[in-house]
Amino acid sequence: MAGALKPEFLIADEQELRSLFPATHDLAAKKSLPRLDRHAIDFIARSPFLCIGTQAADGRADVSPRGDPRGFVKVLDDRTLLIPDRPGNNRLDTQSNILANPSVGLIFMVPGFDDTLRINGRAVITHDPDLLALLAVKDRLPLTAIAVHVEEVFLHCAKAFRRSKLWDPESRQDRSEMPSLVKIILDQIDAAPEDPEEMKTLDEGLEESYRKSMY
């Protein structure tokens, strides 16, 4: 069958994996820091977006986006970050995973920057009103925040972003070439209405919910 994985080519251990690649560059091996330096703090202050990776107790992995005005993640000290948890779909995947397994991985992005900041550490969830007050946007507070104890910090090179041309305006795609988010989800659960006007009303309802719940 085309696309089937052939067992003889599956990598079984790290030694076999590393045998396929050149040795790690000396600078790449040394760049990892145990705490935030001034450059990492400046990067975080510029970033309006991050992805947080977590893992459930059974090993199930999850990655979730987080976004707000630039500098939305607060640096409490050189080993502690505070990430607001804004209104979402209330699945609480990230928070539930943190309660089961506090290890997290973060990737910070800055529009126009091809390099990214990666942070690994251990997280807890807090609803301390004094800390939540630091995260207010337009006088609205998050219900909870994720506090991350930093264990590893390093900047990641630009290759992935340059290959993908993520920030290049000419690489932008027309969102209308795919169905709306609501239509896709309803298709996936076999509940999409046949009436285009009804579908339009549902799409407009999502946009209205964005306007009401963002802040």
From TrEMBL:
Compositionally biased spans, kind Basic and acidic residues: 198-215
Chain segments annotated as transmembrane: none
Region described as Disordered: 195-215
InterPro entries in alphabetical order: Pyridox_Oxase_FMN-dep, Pyridox_Oxase_N, Split_barrel_FMN-bd
One Pfam family here: PNPOx_N
Domain Pyridoxamine 5'-phosphate oxidase N-terminal: 40-157
Record PANTHER family: FAD-BINDING, PUTATIVE (AFU_ORTHOLOGUE AFUA_6G07600)-RELATED
Name by which UniProt lists this protein: Pyridoxamine 5'-phosphate oxidase, FMN-binding family
Biological source species: Martelella mediterranea DSM 17316
